[in-house]
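Hello forum,

I keep getting stuck at the same step: I have a sequence, I want structure tokens, and every attempt I make locally crashes halfway through. Rather than fight my setup again tonight, could one of you with a working pipeline run this one for me? It's a single chain of 813 residues.
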Amino acid sequence: MKAIFYLVLSLCLTALPQWACAHAEHDKPRYVAADGEDKGRCDTPSSPCKTIGYAAQQASKGDNILVAAGNYDIEDVNTLFYLISDVVPVKGGYSTKQYKRDVSQHPTRLVGVPPEYVDELAEKGFTIIVDRKGMDDATSMQLSDKMGAVEEMRRKQLNVACTNGRAGQFACSNIDLVAHIPLSELGGNTQGNDIWGHYDLNDGREYALMGLRNGTVVVDVTHPDDPRIISRIPGQDTTWRDIKVLQQFSASEGTWKSYAYVTADNASVGLQIIDLNELPVRATLANTDMTDISAHNIYLSNVDYSTGVPLPGLQPFLHLAGSNNNGGAFNTFALTNPIDPEPVYRNASNTRANYSHDVASMTVFDERKDSQCVNASDYCDVLFDFNENDVRLWDKTNRSTPVELSRTSYPQASYVHSGWWSEDKLVMSVHDELDEQTYGINTTLRFFDISDLTRPVLLSTYTGPTRAIDHNGFVRGNRYYMSNYERGLTVLDISNPANPVDAGFFDTYPVSNLPSFNGAWGTYPFLPSGLLLVSDINSGLYVVRDNTLTVTQGTLSFSTQEYAVDEGSTLNVSVTRTQGTTGAISVGYETRTGSADAADFGATSGRLEWAEGETDSKQFSVSIPGDALDNELPEQFFVRLFDPQGGATLGSPSMATVTINGTASAGNISFTRSSITLTEDASQGVLVLKRAGGKAGSVSVDLVLNDAASQAITLEPGTLSWADQESGNKAVTLTRRVTTSGIQNATVSLAGDHLGTTPQVSIILEGGSTGEPIRNASGGGGGALGLAVVMLLAGLLWRRLVRAYAFHPTQRR
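Reply #2:
Ran it on my machine without issues. Output:
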């Protein structure tokens, strides 16, 4: 097998096409020996590196470092951090040359370890020598300072302003720390990965959904200085997860329905669909789709990224990139049933040449839909396919027959990773995840002119102040928000995309700024509050405040976040310019559908303009036609600002909700589920009640146990109330208080006015020996667990087979 490994490696370096070996540096060992040399990639036993720190800088996500017998001085905090963090797992006790592990026969000695880390490193197979005599005062002070920064990464913190370039131990510029939740609180001994946000239109709450190595965590950040962990959805251990959210209005239920979609790479868990409809009480696993057992990234097209709501007149689609099927080419699913995605397109090719690492999309309504697209009619749906070696643009207007419009690469292309598009839809960003390592360059982000979709042209290149790797980025207004690994969050001013410049940053990884895979993985800049979410591999979740928006040209926002208007009238929407008056500026505006559709208001779009020095508010109007419907409930749609020009920025609110007044209703109260199971092992459960269909006036309901239930169960509280204009979910806790033999059925019912369609819940009491426990709160069951075990074993077998031949068909970052 080893001979085959070196044969394939040789072919990768000489004979095979580049796509066949793309990202071949992923998920493999890096070797270290005392007589090694710090050069190359440290990826063969015959050419080991000399130091752990150098090997860690060559490692990719999913790699590990094997350290041969010998003595290794720990003279810098970077090496110590690699040893203790497990971001790149480091293990000692290996023989030289063959790298077989036997801790007793091949002692790996670490010299100069601080006493507090002795036990932790000894458990990893190292022999520890605690000796600081050889460390000079300056080095000792530097180590102490950096270890202090490491400790800050492990500590929860709230409301730390960025002052004189620091927010506590974190370097910063124009970005305040609002909240930091460390990994220890998010999911225990784990690592972070990607992040997305959710704005619940039922009650206006904001959430962070963050991927962890061991699952997905949902955090309520509505009150950002008091973040609250809601639920953890477990998943198979893996370095990679990706998350997106869909929110749609259910007219039959009178409420917004929301689901999160989570993929995992290098795992066998399929597409997890998380039910967000019981927030803020809990989030649960609604379904797992096994069409693709793994995928590197997930993307939802034709949705607003602040709300997750489908764009007016368009159907949302789910796209998987880098899956285990079809060589990793993108696959497309319809979401007619949001918990049961329906495949509508799968690339016929099975070759690795079509592997999609990540995708994004935009809908074009200008003349390009006629002159450059193929399938377009009223619009052209353009998919950005970041395909490792190039960027491919597709006309995806016809989902079943996408047409490739262009392929674009650039000098020093090392791994074409991801990107986004400007709000005027004329510029595309491109992240390359390996060019900093491969060419020894500083952070490099490229922007392309896509006024011609068939021939993108390099417009500009941003070069950062450090060698930290750029990872993922998104546009809001004229700001580009980029996760920059070891530099943390970087914010660029792209008012002039031909000359992008630094506007601010927040360093979530204050240990170093090396081109390594530590630090900020992802960011989400679309919360209506304007707060930014950042996920850090090593240290958890950050909520930060963007102060880069204060500029001399002014900040543009709606005068209020909530408007109300009667049918048969005209709504006047006001936009203000504050904090600056330099230069002539403008901003785009548009309406977006919600529970109100295109028949309920006049779709409106355009631009507002301010002259130099002008401070007056500007208005645009939206017509609200009357109709003959009686007792029609209030309906909502949205207005948004976008694409500011002239250097002005978007403040909050840049999205506002418009309520078309209707017949006031108190709505109804229902249980969200019709049954719950309590076992002897899981004797406590939670019932969730939802107010939907209206929120006028205060309402209350009592919870009543039938005779059988009252003997076996207590509930708290027994009455729930909603105030006037209050909607959303509330929880009741059921506790089993007696042991029963066999299975008994009981009920809890609602009593009061304004009851909905599910006013009663069946309670199943299972005896410890008479039934299999059902963990209702996690949404799982025995069948699902069994399937997960089977898929896990199948995935492990597959990984063992492909690694034996040193070729993984889905190697990527």
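The chain has ten helices and 55 strands. If your local run keeps crashing, start a new thread with the error log.
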